[in-house]
Amino acid sequence: MTTSTPAPDEDQFEVAVVGGGPAGLTAALYATRLGHKTAVFDRGGGRAAMMQETHNVIGVPESVSGNEFLETAVEQLRSYGTDYRRSFVTGIERRGGAFALDTTDGPAVADRIVLATGFSDGRPDPPLPRTGRGLHYCLHCDAYMFVDEPVYVMGHGDSAAFVAMLMLNFTDDVDLLLRGDDPTWSDETATLLEKHPVDIVHEDVTGVRNDEDGWLEALEFEDNAGPRPAGNRTESGDKTVREYTGGFAMYGSEYNNELAASLGAELENDGTVTVDDHGRTSVDGLFAVGDLTPGHNQIPVAMGQGAKAGIALHKSLREFPKSLAELEAEGAVEPQDVPAIDAELRRQANGTEHAPAESD
Q1: Where do the structural domains in the chain lie, given as residue ranges?
Q2: Would the pTM of this model clear 0.85, i.e. be above it?
Q3: pLDDT, tens digit, 9 for 90 and up, residues 268-278
Q4: Of 99, 100, 138, 300, which residue is most buried, by most CB within 10 angstroms?
Q5: 135-249 CATH
Q6: In which band, very low, low, confident or very high, does the pLDDT at 222 lie, cut at 50, 70 and 90?
Q7: How far is residue 144's CA from residue 148's CA, in Å, rounded to a whole number?
Q8: Contacts 24+ apart (CB under 8 A), 338-342
Q9: Could you give the CA distance from residue 12 to residue 18 in angstroms, rounded to a whole number?
Q10: CB of 210 within 8 A of CB of 230?
């Protein structure tokens, strides 16, 4: 039911999903299984792909890495007929009631767009532990890993201070690493820190010590950072070495909202895209899901958002039932008009995807 005629070199879809994380892939799964010709444009990478282990996803063992999790999802999508492409969307424009996409895989047109482009975590300067093997970004995903273990939090703002205090729910050995920056947290936060057993370390990190498998063992600091050596602190020459199992970097987030902004979608003050409960933005036909939207940055949450957006997409695209006004204008639905599922997806579903296509 595309409302814009594509150019000869344009691929035509009912749904185009931009982004290949858990939210975008789930939206594509629902849209495809509900009968709509769907494409996913995925540039690769993303927060989920960085995961060494998958946490808090029921039915998925923690031995599964982020890449393995995503690869399995892509295989599922392709098995149902989703057109999955490893490509980058460079621009989207409104064309009548549809959208025209410029991609590194060529131009395309779609009735509905789902943006699942997420955000990028702010990273401190090196030296740093390896991401996922000592450097983490999601407290709710990874705090369990550090029960009764020495932990650091890097950052100088209110968010870093609160994460340091939150980690006291899991361990009694928490350091807040300013790395040479002056604290920017509020006076109220400063008072809270004074009343919680968090050790604030002002000096910068000068080195990282890993075990033979690449997991963090300790950080080195300049100028004998901290008080007299005790507990997990030892002096080594002119440096202080503090042992850590891992920790969190809290330097803010940069939301990948350029496509949403270019289409005129409303944004929140923090840069997230404003959406309703089913991922609808302020632009008709444009949806946003996952880390690009307000809320918890969690895989199960993202998948739920993708599912709800997929259902909302289907309701806005499905042919039947016709309304009374449509039936009065067009007449009764004839047997040859059903089913409305995309022809290619129909062949995929009934096992005849390799049979010759029926003539229109």
Answers
A1: 11-121+254-317, 135-249
A2: yes
A3: 999 999 999 99
A4: 99
A5: 3.50.50.60
A6: confident
A7: 10
A8: 339/35, 340/35, 341/35, 342/14, 342/35, 342/36, 342/37, 342/81
A9: 15
A10: no
